Amino acid sequence: MTSVSASRKIEPLPDDAKHILVVDDDLKIRDLLARYLLENGFRVTTAEDALTARSAMRGLAFDLILLDVMMPGESGLSLAKEIKSTTMLPVCLLTARADAEQRIEGLEISDEYITKPFEPRELLLRLRNILRRGQPVTGPADEVRMGSYVFYIARGELKHDDEPVKLTERERDLLRLFAQRRGTPIPRHELSSDDNTGSERAIDVQINRLRRKIETDPSNPAYLQTVRGKGYILYTD
User: Which of 36, 138, 178, 216 is most buried, by CB atoms within 10 Å?
Assistant: First the structure.
């Protein structure tokens, strides 16, 4: 985790504040994460290992588990497997390793997988996205926000810091569809049904191009994400 800005005063939390369990054997990281999440409106409980985490889960109700992979004793992967096999709790894995094999294994048993070091704001966004999954979108808002980007659905206009971003007609159509159905996975075959190429592979290429226009890091998207075995989904602020 990269350094965060000077701590601000923590306001009293609302009764419906989401409760996150942070599990990491590194005391400094635990404290940094706890402070940052508290500052951003979450209730936080911390645990130093799998044993302590299980004890916390027996006595408290959580909305999400933020779990380090590499810990002494039982690994985070092992604990994540148990959590996902016995509960509906979402799990976000943290790791200092970025090799493909472990990343794939992590994604198969968790809701999100983030490598260290990471930007605190990105982590916050990803956690909020996890918590929004499965929740219905309220209201047909004409605009959707993705960080510093705003897409105006009706007129198909994308802006970045109030500056227009050029879109192709296909990119505009795709972004409009995602915006209208934000928070809901859309299968590749549905996205390609109106595509002249008729190729799902062509959709993957177009999604990558669209990510370059709305993502800070297109190779690690925070908004337009892949849903394994389903297609793509757009998350908004």
Answer: 178
Name which of 191, 69, 77, 89 is nearest 133 in CA terms: 89
* CB within 8 Å of 44: residues ≥ 6 apart: 19, 20, 21, 22, 33, 34, 37, 38
Stronger pLDDT, 134 or 229, i.e. the higher one? 229
Q: Max alpha carbon distance in the chain (Å)? A: 56
The number of residues in the chain equals 237
**Angstrom distance (rounded) from CA 101 to CA 200:** 25
**Taking Cα atoms as reference points, which of 150, 167, 168 lies closest to residue 159?**
150
Non-local CB neighbours of 27 within 8 Å, separated by 6+ positions:
48
Q: How confident is the model over 96-136, as pLDDT tens digits?
A: 876 667 667 777 788 888 888 888 888 998 898 888 775 54
- Residues 171-213 have pLDDT tens digits of 998 999 899 888 888 888 888 754 444 467 788 889 999 999 9
Cα separation, 32 vs 220, whole angstroms:
23
Q: Is 123 helix (H, G, I), strand (E, B) or coil?
A: helix
Going 96 to 99 to 102 to 107, the CA torsion angle's sign is positive
Q: State the Cα–Cα distance between residues 185 and 201, nearest whole angstrom.
A: 17
